[in-house]
Write a structure and sequence with these properties.
CATH topology: Glutaredoxin
Number of helices: 10
Mean pLDDT: 89
Structural class: alpha+beta
CATH architecture: 3-Layer(aba) Sandwich
Strand order of the largest sheet: 1-3-2-4-5
Order of helices and strands: HEEHEHHHHHHEEHH
Low-confidence stretches: 3-27
Distance between the termini: 80 Å
Radius of gyration: 21 Å
Strand content: 5-15%
Length: about 240
């Protein structure tokens, strides 16, 4: 083999190795959920990076609403204030869980936004960052990676987080595993769009979750099945 051929060969090998490294870094961790009950609130485990699910409202409720969502998804952004109002009104009896389901093929910043919320969760500010990310969706959705990170770190500062830890946690393997865990569960039970909602394990149609009165009626029905008196202050 000539010297020139060797040089070309070495360049190709180095390029291939670099591509494999990048691919391995970007690949989602493989998650085994064969023994997971997708309809229950998930405790910290090796499968989810030892990051327990965050529950808004009553953590041990017999009635649980789960959303599979994408923080960059416009439809999720539209649904956000409605779901927030309903879960806030029902928080004494209802458990609400958000599971990450970033659609990276069409939303380039979705996974980074999910990591941002999970990173805030490691400092006890999950729901505060969840709200901030959704409320400012249009401000960060189309930013480049560097610009996006700067904005997210700014949100962390506004919430009083340790900025250095927060920025480090944006690439924390445990958070990547948690996001992949959520996605894997969603795919297992048939979540195929965002947002997708499940109420006590039953997938809600767009007609139900998209209508406040119908969603409240569905939640009230689950309360009654569980022997819980529905809140009377809900309008």
């Amino acid at each position: 083999m000539s010297k020139k051929t060797w040089i070309i060969f070495i360049i190709l090998v180095v390029g291939l190795l670099a591509a494999l490294v990048v691919s391995s870094r970007n690949a989602s961790p493989k998650i085994d959920i064969s023994s997971i009950n997708a309809n229950s609130i998930q405790p910290a485990s090796a499968a989810n990076g030892n990051i327990a699910e965050h529950v808004f409202g009553k953590a041990d409720s017999k009635v649980v609403l789960v959303e599979y969502g994408d923080f960059q998804c416009p439809a999720c952004g539209v649904a956000y204030p409605r779901i927030k109002a309903i879960t806030e009104a029902y928080k004494d009896e209802l458990g609400f869980v958000f599971r990450n389901f970033p659609l990276m093929a069409i939303h380039a910043n979705a996974k980074a936004a999910a990591a941002t919320v999970e990173a805030a969760g490691l400092q006890g500010k999950y729901w505060e960052m969840y709200n901030m990310i959704y409320q400012n969706q249009k401000a960060w959705s189309n930013l480049s990676g560097t610009e996006r990170t700067g904005v997210f770190v700014g949100y962390a500062a506004a919430l009083g987080l340790d900025e250095a830890k927060f920025e480090t946690d944006l690439t924390n393997p445990a958070i990547a595993k948690k996001i992949s865990f959520d996605q894997t569960i969603g795919k297992k039970i048939g979540a195929d769009a965002t947002p997708t909602f499940y109420l006590n394990g039953v997938k809600l149609t767009n007609e139900v979750w998209g209508d406040d009165a119908k969603l409240k009626a569905a939640i009230d029905s689950e309360f009654k099945k569980a022997g819980i008196t529905p809140p009377t202050t809900i309008k």
